[in-house]
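Problem statement: downstream parser choked on a complex file, so we are re-checking the raw output for the T3D run. The parser issue turned out to be on our end (a line-ending mismatch), but while we're here, posting the original submission so the record is complete.
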Amino acid sequence: MAQASILYQAQDGVARITLNRPDVLNSFDGTMSRSLQQVLSEVTRDETLRAVYLTGAGRAFCAGQDLAEAAPREGSGIVDFSARVRNLYNPLVLALRRMPKPVVCAVNGVAAGAGANLALACDIVIAAEAAAFLQAFVKIGLVPDTGGTWTLPRLVGSAQAAALMLLGERVSAARALELGLIYQVCPLAELEATGFGLAAQLATQPTYALSLIKQLLAVSSRNSLEQQLELEAEYQGLAGRTADYAEGVRAFLEKRPPIFHGK
Ligand code: T3D
């Protein structure tokens, strides 16, 4: 029986998702993309899951598109890459960015092409010391997709983003941290405990407020200060009506840790 290309289990309020095509460095074929879309859609709807942990099986995180699947074939016409990107990659980025709960990505090894940009679409990205990030697209004559041209300039500024995408060079985890591309680097042996630990901790936090923070961050760079201040006021109104806020303040006054239920 074929091995599932996406492994998924619920644990401690966290959706643990693993890209699982290790023989081809977890590169994406259509089946893996559609399975991940399906899982992300289930996780979005499941209120018992309050954080997501995403990683890769084996020595890589994800080498982007499976190039054997997307290779031009003699005599079989032009591959419609626009349709492939719209159907296989764009929905993944939107699902991660719109996920109403935090997504922690643990980059266990190389993350190339769509694999790099999938990682960078997550909310908190940590990486193993030997991991690396490559905007590999240009090396095969393609342009960055999976949100890279949107995400990278916002993370590292346009000068660094241009160099990363035009040169397609390998960026070490240490350099990625220095650039502000990722949050933390740790030894591979500690990656899972660190990454899953972060996700499990986030799963005990005020989930609705976390989702509002994600939304505020998502629009801040296109809003004026006035618009952003107004949105903060509006969302504070929403957060201030939650049971989690009531619990947070009560716990503070009673000098005990809060118990948030995500509502
Ligand atoms: O089609 C569309 O929808 C368009 C969208 C495109 C989105 C994209 O992601 S385009 C970018 C695609 N990805 C790449 O160009 C990266 C290709 N891979 C590499 O450059 C290197 O493999 C890495 C730098 C990622 C890792 O290098 P290394 O030396 O650690 O490993 P390796 O020996 O190159 O690869 C190990 C195996 O994985 C090897 O198979 P083998 O020889 O052991 O049987 C290799 O062929 C396979 N592999 C690695 N990447 C891919 C892959 N097989 C298929 N597709 C891959 N992307």
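For whoever reads this later: Strands lie at 6-11, 14-19, 51-56, 60-62, 103-107, 110-112, 124-128, 132-134, 170-172, 184-186.
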